[in-house]
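Exam revision sheet. Question 4 asks you to relate a sequence to its structure. Input first:
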Amino acid sequence: MIQWNKSQHRKWIVPSSVGFSSQPMSLINECMLVASRDGVVLGFMAFETTDVVEKFVSRLQERILSPDLTGAQFELICPATSIPTVKLICAHSPVEKILKYVPSSFVEVTVTPASIAIRKKLRVVIVDDSSVTLLLLGHTLKSSGWIDVVGTISDPSVAVQQIVALKPDVVTLDIQMPTKNGLQVLKELLAVKYFPVLMITSLSRDDGTDVMNALSNGAFDYIQKPTSTNRAAEASEIISKVLGAAASTGISSRGIASKKPVLTTAINGPFDPRLVWAIGASTGGTQALTRVLTHLPAKIPPTLIVQHIPPIFSKSFADALNRDCPFTVKEAENGEAIRENCVYIAPGATQMTIEKKGSDHVIVITDDAPVNRFKPSVDYLFSRLAKVKDLTFVAGILTGMGRDGADGLLAMKKAGAKTFAQDEASSTVYGMPKAAFEVGAVDEVCDIDAVAEFLLNASHGIQGPKSKMKRPA
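Answer key, structure tokens:
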């Protein structure tokens, strides 16, 4: 493969019309290289900054250029209404020569007399026993213009075999099916090969435990079963999560059953009674929080957690953690005083903060508007904790898509809090932690299995071993 040499080729150009802050749905905070089955990089899903664009183009030029493409000019096309594409303008090569580098089954190709535009199309398989859901979900995904539904499976007993044969980028899997439920199919599938799996749920109370079990067993995330009403909002959420799953690192496949790390911190004496921990998370967060909380000792400061989650599932999530942890974990209730050895999970579809009441600090649950599209929102909680003067905080952000919590964590750090963020290698989606790091809100970057020790070290004023804090690519 020829290495890119700027002296031998025209430079790449970025049209001045590109709006880096207004990507379609703001899906991903970094460039996502898309590789075909034979390893040729074909395109990208989203980008936000010029340095990311430069790195992407450099990689693309290194991997796809050949003698047939000598003299090609790369142009990044980013219309506001569709997914970005890569356009090759060939000054000295017939367009036909380029087509052999483009597996048409994986991309959408537009050819003109002087150029070729390449756009990756994601391959999705839908598993659901409901013909209505197959129809609605299939229509929603196809309407995006860059997702191909390559298979629909109504019989869960043959799902694993067909999924492996179809080789999709993402699988959607109904949680409730006859003969074999989605959790059973998930376990069997991931025992054969890892695929990013989105569980399909009606968001009923009955689904709560099964969805939490699916997430702890390697599912990437879950989406609400589409309906015939409010289709625009549903489509945005579904497509966003499918693209997020396709861009994920696959970390969720390792589940939560890991060896408990040895905590080197000596726990001597009680915590400062003014100390509170605060943590925010989104995609992959239920698994990450489980790993962190189950690695902690029985005695901890009051802990406030915002996980992006629907109202029905926040209670199921809290109950599951309460069964596995040596301290109390509960869904937060308005007006209750925060106490040591207790973790408070923000209820879904609400906002959470605390306020001083007499000698106590109490939970405040509100119906305030979403922040960063989220309710509950990490920024909502963190920005208000930054203004609390009579408490001290250790706070951080775990895996998640987007940037919710970055500004609030920075405000907390400026107010004196010790802060952390999960590292890229252990994050399911390195969006929220990366955003927090880039704005300067992070004191320490931690692998997920080092977060518990950081919390304890920071709370006792002990300087732990420093992580390598390289600026994310």
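Marking note for examiners. The chain has a mean pLDDT of 76.
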